[in-house]
Amino acid sequence: MDLMEMNLTHETNQFIVIQLGEEQYGIDIKYIDNIVRMQHITRVPKIPEYLKGVINLRGEVIPVMSIRLKMGLPVDEINKNTRIIILKLDTHGSIGIIVDQVKEVVTLEVNNIEKVSYDGKDERINYISGIGKCEGGLISLLDFAAVLAE
Amino acid sequence: MDVSQYLEIFLDETKEHLQSLNTQILNLEHSPEDADTINEIFRAAHSLKGMAGTMGYKRMQALTHEMESVFTDVRNGTLKVKSNMIDAIFQSIDALEEYLTNIQANADEGNNDNEHIIKQLQDILAGGGEEEAPPKKEKGATKEKAVSMERKEKWLEIPMGESESNVLAVAKKQGKNVYGITVRIQESCLLKAARAFLVFKAIEDLGDIIVSEPTTQDIEDEKFNLDFSLIIITEYPLAKVIEAAESVSEIESVVGGDLEIDTSGVEAEEEHELVPLGNAVAVDNTAAGGGGPQPEKKVSKPVVNRTVRVDIEKLDVLMNLVSELIIAKNSLVSATSTEEGNDRSSGVNEQIEYLESVTTNLHESVMKVRMVPIESVVNKFPRMIRDLSKKLNKKMELYMSGEETELDRTVVDEIGDPLMHLLRNAADHGLESTAERIRIGKPESGSIFLDAYQEGNNVIIEVRDDGAGVDVDAVKRKAVEKGIISFEQGENMTEKDIVDLLFHAGFSTAAVVSDVSGRGVGLDVVKSKIEALSGEVEVKSTRGEGSVWTVRLPLTLAIIQALMVTVGGEKYAISLGSIQTIEDISNADIKFVQASEVINLRGTVIPIIRMSEILDIESKKSPDEDMVVVIVKKGDKMAGLIVDELMGQQEIVIKSLGKYISKCKFISGATILGDGEVALILDANVLI
Questions:
Q1: Which listed residue, A84, B105, B150, B305, has the most CB atoms within 10 A of its CB?
Q2: Residue B434: C-alpha distances to residues A36, B508, B542, B548 (Å)
Q3: Quick check: is B425 catalytic?
């Protein structure tokens, strides 16, 4: 058990690579509960714009947010590649995020992950915990504590 | 031994015992001689001591030991119940509760030895001993011996019910021997229950055990000290019985003797009595053949509670499954309703209706399982009022009714604090001082009432007092002083509105802040707590006659009947409980009063709320069409909600919107419709 945890946290991490606009982002698979196709989202009035509403996931009501709006990108264009990734976090419960496309799963060695220096100028950099290097190029690793903060 | 797995049970049972102690000691204060009460207290103290000992909580054990000792003497009649003793016992209970809180928080009882309480109890014990000492000294040369003798012959003190004495009397008539014996097990014995069991078995070979003290159940559970007493019917002489009992190892002593029985009572009925008794004994014997000290269960107290302790989480799972079943059923209903006109649909519809009634019943049963009487919360209040009465130096009595009223477990767990606040408030602010009451000719002792009852889908809990009522002027003055309202506002407010200001945050009218009813953080906390439970609280007050605080709580939290409506193409649910009527009105009916829209409905002016505006959505109806208005009610306030269309009534399962979406006040949750879509639930109470 301990060995496995060590593997996950210190040697290799698996990430799901998603497309948002032109860029690729990575989400640590330990946060991911489910990936579902885009479906009807019930609007909830009087909530921030980046929260699109709620969906029904097998009998549970789950809030969905537009990560594009949260990160200051243009509004989502919904097409057949659009997916909702359901994240399960201790602090926020389950929450869905809308992504343009889910591409692949990559395994990153710890020494292939570079910490980013925080400069605060670009809003997007605030949501990123590191940069991963792999064959497909560079992927930005999302920092959910920041993405989900209000 | 690892006892951590028993911690939950220990906590639960200890709480129950402490509660029972609280109640019984209050009883004792009123009727200090009542033997049942004293026995009950003794048992509770004894069990507590045993449990604390088993779990290794030494301080708790020490304290309960002293309590038990006091009540041993009370039970034996060597110590009289006095008020200082009651106070000391109450202090001990508080101390025990403190231990319990510590244990609950960090599995450790803490370091407080509570020496002064133990000292107090010991003083009481000693005091009682001295008073009773002289007669004893005359009797026996050494007190020690007298006590130990007394202890040995405990069978003489076995309490006997009418049926038992009858059985014994009849047996005696038949020429059988009736003996009482007391068996004492060696102190070093580890398996007391097992030894006792062997003694029972040995004696059962010779005759029948009619009464045992403590009960067999207690003995099996090792809830006894070192000795137990039996009354037996046998054909053999006493010596043989004692020999049989002594043959078991680790037995220190066995003493016994003939039991004197008054047989005159049964003589007349002898003929009739004989036959049934024979049967009874025969039955007993067959039961005994099965093994173990079972037969005397028949004569011991019947088991009252046939219950199972179930983890609330398991019930939540069950409840969720029922919810999903209802959602699935709703899907079926909506799936078939779209295929209407089909020949087969009538048969399907019948089955679906059947399914519907089964799921509704299932839901009700599961809800009932989660229901607990509010008794567990309210029965700590008499004690609290007693303490308050002393602290505030006001005479008061608490009268409670409807303790058996049931509420969902989650609600019951939460409702204790708000009710306590209301009671404290009534005691501190509501009731006048005793001197004042005498002066204005009211009964010297103030009365506080707590009444609970069910009304439709709600449970109402009322806290009433016969005190001074709310001083409207004082409240108004204070509110202006604190800047909650302006002076002009105050002038225009109705009396009721002013009384409602009491629930405003940071409000306290008591001239002196007392540690009883806090610093004005009370009532607004009460209100928000009750509202968090989807309940409401209201106050009505009559100057000079008292106040009534009414707490209204929903019976169930998870599944409700709702009216489905559409606004701008979106579906919303409104709880049926808050809906008064549904009206069709034309544009011309809408009037303006102080720049807000109202309608006049059969003589009542009701403000209207356009839901499309509240929900930030375009209404799909053209402005000159007639409007559908849902009239909702909260207490005696009403409002009309304008919606686009009505969809019909439906049973809905309330789901939370999750932690992440919590800003929207008038949405109380969401539900999943038959087609899998999510609809939001409008909280009419917030909109009004």
A1: A84
A2: 70, 22, 20, 20
A3: yes
Q: How far is Cα B445 from Cα B462, in angstroms, rounded to an integer? A: 20
Q: Mean pLDDT lowest for which of A79-88, B41-50, B74-83, B141-150? A: B141-150
B116 is catalytic: no
- Count CB neighbours of B40 within 10 A: 19
Q: How far is A66 from chain B (nearest CA, A)?
A: 13
Average pLDDT score over residue span B574-590 = 88
Strand order in the sheet with A101-109: A101-109, A12-20, A23-28, A137-142, A128-134, A113-115
Q: What pLDDT score was predicted for residue B557?
A: 61
Q: What is the dihedral of CA B482, B483, B484, B488, to 10 degrees?
A: 120
> Average pLDDT of B412-420?
85
Residue A137 DSSP label: E
Minimum distance, in Å, between the CA of residue A134 and any CA atom of chain B: 33
Q: Does the beta-carbon distance from B660 to A63 stay under 8 Å? A: yes
Q: How far is the CA of B325 from the CAs of A61, B309, B328, B360, B653, in angstroms?
A: 16, 25, 5, 10, 10
- Closest CA in chain B for residue A91: B659
State ipTM: 0.83
Q: Which of A85, A64, A70, A63 is nearest to A19 (CA)?
A: A85
Closest CA of chain A from B617, distance in Å: 9
pLDDT band at B232 (very low <50, low <70, confident <90, very high): confident
Residues with Cβ < 8 Å from B472, sequence gap 6 or more?
A: B495, B498, B499, B541, B543
Residue B502 has φ and ψ, to the nearest 5°, of -60, -25
Tell me the mean pLDDT in the region A110-132.
74
SS3 for B534-577 is: CCEEEEEEECCCEEEEEEEEECCCCEEEEEEEEECCEEEEEEHH
Helix/strand/coil for A109:
strand
Q: Which amino acid makes up residue B222? A: E
CA dihedral B645, B648, B653, B657 (to 10 degrees): 0
By the CB < 8 Å criterion, does A89 face chain B? no
Q: Which two tokens stand for residue B576?
A: 């049926």
Contact B468, B543 (CB under 8 A): yes
As a whole number of Å, the end-to-end CA separation of chain B is 59
Query: What pLDDT shows up at residue B105?
Result: 79
Q: Which of A28, A24, A142 has its CA nearest to residue A88? A: A28
pLDDT at B325 exceeding the cut of 60: yes
Q: pLDDT confidence of B451, banded at 50, 70, 90?
A: very high
- Per cent of chain B over pLDDT 90 is 8
Q: How many CB atoms lie within 10 A of CB B166?
A: 17
The answer to whether A137 faces chain B, any CB pair under 8 Å, is no
pTM: 0.49
Of the candidates B324, B660, B676, the beta carbon closest to that of A92 is on: B660
Is the CB of residue B392 less than 8 Å away from at least one CB of chain A?
no
Q: Do B485 and B564 meet the contact criterion of CB atoms below 8 Å apart?
A: no
The residue ranking higher by pLDDT, B461 or B38, is B461
In 3D, which of B9, B16, B1 has the Cα closest to residue B104? B9
What are B151-207's pLDDT values in tens digits?
Answer: 566 777 777 777 777 777 777 777 778 888 888 877 777 677 777 777 887 888 778
